[in-house]
Amino acid sequence: MEKKGISRREFLKNAGKVAGGAAVGGLLSSCATTGGGGSGGVPSTWDMEADVVILGLGGAGASAAIEAHDAGASVLILEKQAANHHFSNSRMSGGVWHNPDLSGDPEALVEYVKATMSGENIPWKFEGEMEDRSDAMARMFAPEMKKTEAWLMKIDPDLDQRAMAAGGDASFPMFPKFREAKYGRTVSTRYKGFADANPSQPTYERPKLQKSSGEALMHAIIEEGIKKQRPNIRIEYETPFKHFIRSVVNGGLQGDIQGVTAIKNGREITVKAKRAVIVSTGGFEYNVKMRRAFQEGPGVKGWCFYGSPDNTGDGIEAAILIGAALVKVAKSASRIESAFPYGKAWDEKKLKVGAGTAATSQPNSVIVDNFGNRYTDEHIITDSTRPYRYQFYKEAVKYDMLRMMYPRIPSWLIFDESRRTGGGVVSNGTTVGYGFLPWANDNMDAINRGWIIKADTLDELAAKIKADPENRNLIDANNLKAAVARFNTFCAAGKDDDFSRTPATMGPVQRPPYYAMKMYPGGPNTKGGIDADERRQVYDWDGNPIPRLYTAGEISSVFKFTYQAGGNITECMVCGRVAGRNAAAERPWA
Question: Which CATH superfamily, name and number, covers 55-90+220-330+526-565+573-584?
Answer without folding.
Answer: FAD/NAD(P)-binding domain (3.50.50.60)
